[in-house]
Amino acid sequence: MTDAGRHPRITIHTLSEVADIKGYVGSFEVKIVKKARYVDEKACTACGECAKVCPVVRPDEFNIGLSSRRAIYSPFPQAVPSAYVLNPQECLGNNPVVCSKCLEACEKKCIDFHMSDQTLDVRVGTIVVATGLAPHDPRPLDEYGYTRFENVLTSLEFERLVNAGGPTQGQLVRPTDRRHPQSVGFIQCVGSRSARRGKAYCSNICCMNTVKSTLVLKEHYPDMAVKVFYIDIRAFGKGFEDLYTRSRRQGVHYVRGLPGHVEALPDGRLRVAVENTASGSLEYYELDMLVLATGIEPAPSTQKLQEMLGLQLSTDGFFLEAHPKLQPVDAATRGIFYAGCAEGPKDIRESVTQASAAAVRAIRLMQADRISGEAITSEIDPALCKACGKCAEVCPYNAITVDTKKKTPAQVAKAACSGCGTCAAECAFGAITMHHFTDVQIGDQIDTLLDHDPAHKILTFACNWCSYAGADYAGVSRLQYPPNVRLIRTMCSGRVDEKFIWQGFRNGAPVILVSGCHIGDCHYIDANHWTVKRVEKVHKKMEKRGIRPERLQLEWISAAEGVRFAEVMARMEQLRRSVTQQEIADTVAILNK
Amino acid sequence: MTKPISIPASQSEDTPKIGVYVCHCGLNIAQTVDCDGVAAAMAEMPDVVVSKGIGYACSEPGQREIREDIATHGLNRVVVGSCSPRLHEPTFRQMLEAAGLNPFLLEMANLREQCSWVHMKEPAAATAKAHDLVQMAVARARRLQPLEAPSMPMTQRALVIGGGVAGIQAALDMADNGYDVVMVEKQPSIGGVMAQLDKTFPTMDCSI
Fold first, then answer.
1. Would you state the pLDDT for residue B5?
2. What is the CATH number of domain A134-297?
3. Bridge partners, residue A256, by sequence
4. CA-CA distance, A569 to A474, in Å (whole number)?
5. What does DSSP assign to residue B16?
6. Confidence (pTM)
7. At B12, is the pLDDT very low, low, confident or very high (cuts 50, 70, 90)?
8. Cβ separation of B181 and A415 shorter than 8 Å?
9. Which of B160, B196, B201 minimises the CB distance to A159?
10. How far is CA A530 from the centre of its chain?
C-alpha cells in the first residue's frame, strides 16, 4: 500500500469515482469526480489533534461499527493517503459559535471548510477494472439470527475483533458481556452455493478464511472449543490442505452439515441444531459465539461501470472475460482488463496473480505510441448519398458527419468508427458499404444456405459479442440443440438490414431469428436499440402483407447464456415446424409480386 | 506496433483463388462430421482451387501446409472450417500475413463450437450443417477484400479503477515498468477489503 502511495508514477485519487468514460483503446477520455476531503492531503501530518477535539461520535466503518470515530478521522492507522478526512454530513460546521474546534487544534492549518468537489479529466490508453467485491449481507434471510442475536457475527466483523489494530486490540470478546468466549462456531457457505439462500456459486475464499480463523483462535486460546459447520471443505490451493490438516490436528471440530436452527439461551449463549450428515444424527451444540462465513458478491458499482464501458457480465453478476481459458484477464473490449474479485471471487494470491497478468496485458498495448485500430469500418459513397442524415442519427459513436441543409454527403471518421454496421443497415439508398460485412457478402450467405431444402433450415443472425459467443458457450458446454440452425455472424445485431430478412423469406426461409446483446449490454453502446425498431417495423410490414409476424423472432442472448441459446434454438425449431409448405409458398409469392 | 500493410493490387482484383481447409481438430470435429467428405464436396465449387481435410489446422505443420498451398497455387482467399473464429481467427490471420496475404482475406466456418459439439448424436445432420457452413464461408470469402487497419495514437497512461489488493498490484507493476498510472478509489484510503483482514492464508501473516 505504501509503495503505491509513494510511487512517483502513480497518482491516487481517493474519495473519487469514475463518472464517465468515452473513447476507445489508446484514447479513453475519463471524467473523475473527486469529493472534497476538507483536509489538505499533502499538508496533513496525521497528528490526530483535530479528532481529539471533535465532539461528534459516529460508528467506525472500517471496524464495521464495532468501534467509533469522530466526524474528522483517519480511516485506519496505515491508511494511504494518511491524511485525515472530514465527513461534511456529520460535521457541525465551521460556524465558530457552533464548533470549528478542529480548526483551532490544527497547527498546520490544513483544514479547509471551503474545499469543493473537483471534476478531473484524464486521458488514458488502457483501463484495469479492479472494483473488488461486496460481502454477502446475511440480514434478509435471518435463519442464523444475525439480526436477532448480538453474538452472531459475520466473518469480516470477526476479523476486526481478532485484529491487533481492531476495536479490542485483538482480544476476542463476546459482544453481549465483553468476556472471552469459551466456544466459537463457524457456519460455512452463508450466501454461497444456494440459489435460494443467496448465490448459487462457491465464493472460493470462505473455507480457507475459516480454517485460518480457527488456527488464529487455537494459537491464542488453545482450550477454546472451536467448531466448523460445513457442506464440504474446499482446500484446493497450494499449502491449503496443510493448513486444514493442522486445524484438525489442533482439535478444531468439523461437523458436516449446515445448522437448521439457531436460538439464544437466557445467558446469551447460542443453541445450534444441526443434522450431521457424516453420522446421520441430529445434534445440538451450545456455543458462546457464532461466525457466519459470508460469501462474496459483485461490487455495487459493477453495473454502472458495465454500462459505461459496454462490458459483459457473467450470470453470476461478475465481469465476463473475453475467453475463460485463453484471455482470462481481458475484457471483450480492447484495452480493458480485469483484476481481482471484479471478475469473480478469489483470494489474495489469485488476485495478485491476475493483477500482474492484467498489468502485462495493458503494457503489451501501451509499449508503442501507436496501435492499429479497427479495420472493419463503414464507408459512404458520396455519389449515392442523399444527405438525409439517418446514418449520423443512428451512429452510436457520432462518427458520421453530414450537413442535411446544404446536402453535403455524409462522411465517416475512420478513427471513431467501431464497425457495428448500423448505418449501413439504416441507409435507404445503398450508399454505405460496411467493409467485411457487405450487403453482397451477407446476401450470398443467405442465398447459399437457402439454396437447397430451405423449409428445414433456421436462418439465424447472431452478433459477434453476445449471441454468437453464447452459441460458442453452448458448444463448450456440449449443450445439444436442433442441427438445422445456420448462423450468420455480424459484428452487431444493428447490422441486420431489413432487406436481409426479406431476402431470407423470399428464398423460402420458414423462420428467421435476429439475436444480439441484451438491451444495455450492447458492445456498440446502444446500437441494438435500432435492431428493436427495425424488427418492429418489419413485423408491421409482415402483418400488412399477410405474412405471419411470429416467423421473425428477436432474442437477446448474452455471451454467458449458452443454456438460453440452446433453449431459443429448440423453440425456433418448434416454430419452424408450425410453418407449412403452403405458408412458405404463399410468402414467396407475396414477396415476388 | 503494427507494420504498415502494403496490399498488392492482385489480391483485390484477381479472380478469387480459394483454398478450403476442413480441420479435424483431432476427433473433436472428425468424430461427428465427415470432414474429408465436406472438403471433397467443396473442391467442386467455383473458384475453389484447393480443398482438403487437415488434422490440426492451427498446429505448426497445419499452418505450414496452408502457407505452402498459398505459395504453390497462388491462393488469394483462405477458408478454414475449424473452431470458433473467436478463438483462432487471430492465429490464422497472422498465418495469412506471414504468407504475404492481407489478413482480412481469411474466412472461418465454426465447425466445432457450433456444429460437432452441439450435434454429437446426429453425425449425418452435423455433416450436412458443416457442408452448409463451409459453403457459406466460401461464398463470403469470394467477396472478401483486403482491409487496412488505421494507425491510432496510444496514450501511455493507464487508469486503475479500485484501490484494493488487485488494483494496487496492477498499478505497481505498470508503474515499475515506466507507465503513468491514475488510480481511482471511492473510499478515503486505498487498501480495500484486504486492509480489513487480520491474518491472511496461506502465509498467516498480516494483510497490510
1. 45
2. 3.50.50.60
3. A230
4. 11
5. P
6. 0.82
7. low
8. no
9. B196
10. 25
